[in-house]
């Protein structure tokens, strides 16, 4: 059974940094896309970042460019999202996803984690 488990969320202040982790089990995703999405209260889930394969180029939404970095550790079968200069509008539940079935930036991924809450206080 494949599982993605996010961790690292919490409450921080504006301007702080936070690093999210997503540990995969049940299979490896070194050659598959892994991505981060987020969903704020009352809003639709939106794309944050994706890496097509381990070590590949990261692609980011406009709001994440220059502030967020996606990376992976194959040995730990884990994908990370390093977030810096956090803003209150970054407050959301952050989800990791693996194995895109369509566009990398869409929501059609085979596997999803349960999410981790990030709250940025002003």
Describe it for me?
It is a single chain. The chain is mainly β. It contains no helices and 11 strands. A hairpin with a 4-residue loop joins strand 7 and strand 8.
Count of runs of 4 or more consecutive helical residues: 0
As residue ranges, the low-confidence spans are: none
Task: Please outline the major beta sheet.
Answer: 7 strands, mixed
Determine the N-to-C terminus distance: 40 Å
Fraction of helical residues? under 10%
Average residue-wise pLDDT: 95
Structural class designation = mainly beta
Query: What is the strand tally?
Result: 11
Strand content: over 45%
Please trace the helix and strand order, writing H or E for each element: EEEEEEEEEEE
Cα-atom Rg, whole angstroms? 13 Å
Oligomeric state as shown: single chain
Backbone shape: globular
Labels describing this entry:
4-stranded antiparallel β-sheet; 122 residues; 52% strand; mainly beta
Question: What topology does this entry show?
Answer:
Elements lengths: L2 E5 L2 E4 L4 E8 L8 E6 L6 E6 L6 E3 L7 E6 L4 E6 L8 E9 L8 E4 L3 E6 L1
Parallel strand pairs: 2-11
Antiparallel strand pairs: 1-3, 3-8, 4-5, 4-9, 5-6, 7-8, 9-10, 9-11
Summarize the structure.
The chain is an all-beta fold and 122 residues long. The protein has strands spanning 3-7, 10-13, 18-25, 34-39, 46-51, 58-60, 68-73, 78-83, 92-100, 109-112, 116-121.
């Amino acid at each position: 059974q494949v599982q993605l488990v996010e961790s690292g969320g919490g409450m921080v202040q504006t301007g702080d940094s936070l690093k999210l982790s997503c540990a995969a089990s049940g299979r490896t995703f070194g050659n598959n896309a892994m991505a981060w999405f987020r969903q704020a209260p009352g809003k639709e889930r939106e794309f944050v970042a994706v890496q097509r394969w381990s070590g590949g180029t990261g692609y980011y939404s406009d709001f994440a460019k220059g502030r967020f970095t996606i990376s992976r550790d194959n040995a730990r079968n884990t994908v990370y999202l390093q977030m810096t200069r956090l803003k209150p509008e970054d407050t959301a539940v952050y989800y990791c996803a693996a194995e895109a079935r369509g566009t990398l930036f869409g929501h059609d991924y085979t596997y999803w984690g349960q999410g981790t809450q990030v709250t940025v206080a002003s």
